[in-house]
Write a structure and sequence with these properties.
homodimer, Nucleoside Triphosphate Pyrophosphohydrolase, 7 helices
Chain lengths: ~280, ~280
């Protein structure tokens, strides 16, 4: 199933990351390019594609990988942790899928670096290594690697209707699948059941995996599932959700198609909630 | 599908984590218990079950949740990051599944705290909050939450045989499913394909999710998949693997049953590789 922020078409060339001499050679080569960013957002060229510039000296950078042998990098800029960038959503709406995937990788890595400038174990400063795919502590030597935070996102189904929720910060009319971070000590299936219980008071069984995608705000792995609800009585956790509703397949299809009078406004096409709802409604 | 380190049977009672007064009340109650540990390992009682002690004063602790209304805690001990604890494997081999799940949750959280004593963004020290399910930076105020690192673990299949690999540190004869961390900017399916390509030179399609489980060394989310290999010619990355072999279903069944003369020694029952191999061989 094709999901958002995937299909970058890059060879990440993991074997080159530890080869500093070869990476320096690649960065100095005529073919090397570095991603053009405005803050954390992509700066597109006149064709609406990602902008790529010739390499510019000694700035810190991340080796994204090879595309048709061409070495691609991203600048390792400073950024405040936890920046939200709703402005980029309009851009993402019309970007080519592979461009979103490449930019999303760069954005996640940049945010990760900015949240790991110091070692969590000893407080010393850390330094980039592995071509931007790690940081090593200058004090205790501990190595830190860019990971992603798994999030379950799911539809509970009851008698042909899907449970959807609304967070207070959503745009007007928007409803989407419920979601939450996977915690230490639980499986995907347990996290789905716990979150539906916590946020909506819905007990489920028979959790089924549907699809996955990365989400670069700042670095989640979205894991989409469906589950069967035992009942349809909602007990809302108003700290998490403003509202929750049951919608049938016809209503979901209308929302995804943007039909006027649809029961809700659906999530954007690059969000896995969209893919999940489309899968469920089909 | 039942997997290892799951089924703790605890109500994690997320709504209580931010309620410091109520948590203090629960910790002071007659029913409260704290997990008995020797270092990071469980200390079992005479019945082979987890040991639980009455609460002991003002030590730092983690609220694990409620079991039949009984508040359960774990001590927040100091531990060196990255400790391996092969010694505990013999213990896990005979522990009740729900005990492994509860202990695994505690171990992952303790390790997480010890790797987040300082803020990665500004280097200041952090302080526990949310009943042990978070740390807040005393300098910049950034909040850190215990997450887990997703790892894909997979069987590539080719004409009825499964690809298995051997890492140098494995016990004698042991082979298992190949595995690797999911990176920023990729889906589960893309990570499976990348890892099989990197470690064994095997190209795959049709990645299928099978099951998941937490792994508390120190805090992974294991995501088990199968995939269809285009060919069977192995090109080994000897930095990652010592050997890789193709084994048919009969061979896998013999290994899992511990039959003498089986083509390899299988992974322990509490590892998801065991569950995955059993599923594939069935």
């Amino acid at each position: 199933m094709k999901t958002g922020f995937t299909g970058a078409g890059l060879d990440r060339a993991d074997h080159l990351r530890l080869d500093e001499a070869r990476l320096a050679e690649l960065a100095a080569s005529f073919e090397a390019r570095i991603l053009r960013l405005g803050g954390l957002d992509p700066e597109l060229d006149e064709d609406g594609r990602l902008g790529w510039d010739p390499m510019a000296g000694a700035e810190e950078r991340i080796f994204l990988g090879l595309r048709d042998g061409m070495p691609l990098f991203a600048p390792l800029i400073r950024a405040e942790p936890g920046q939200r960038a709703w402005s980029v959503f309009a851009l993402l709406d019309r970007m080519a899928a592979e461009d979103s995937a490449v930019w999303g990788t760069a954005r996640s890595l940049i945010e990760w670096h900015n949240r790991h400038l110091f070692c969590g174990a000893c407080g010393s400063s850390t330094k980039v290594f592995r071509g931007g795919w790690g940081r090593r502590c200058a004090g205790c030597g501990l190595e830190h690697f860019p990971r992603v935070d798994p999030v379950v996102i799911m539809i509970a189904e009851h008698e042909g209707r899907a449970l959807l929720g609304r967070q207070p910060q959503y745009p007007a009319g928007r409803y989407s699948a419920l979601a939450g971070f996977v915690e230490p000590g639980e499986s995907i299936e347990e996290a789905v059941a716990r979150e539906l219980g916590e946020e909506a008071g819905i007990a489920v069984s028979d959790v089924r995996y549907v699809a996955s995608q990365p989400w670069p705000f700042p670095g989640q792995l979205m894991i989409a599932c469906t589950a069967t609800a035992a009942g349809d009585e909602i007990r809302l956790d108003t700290n998490e959700l403003e509202d929750a509703i049951w919608v049938d397949r016809e209503g979901v299809r209308a929302a995804l198609a943007g039909v006027p009078g649809a029961p809700f406004v659906g999530p954007p096409h690059f969000a896995i909630a969209h893919t999940l709802l489309r899968h469920w409604a089909a």
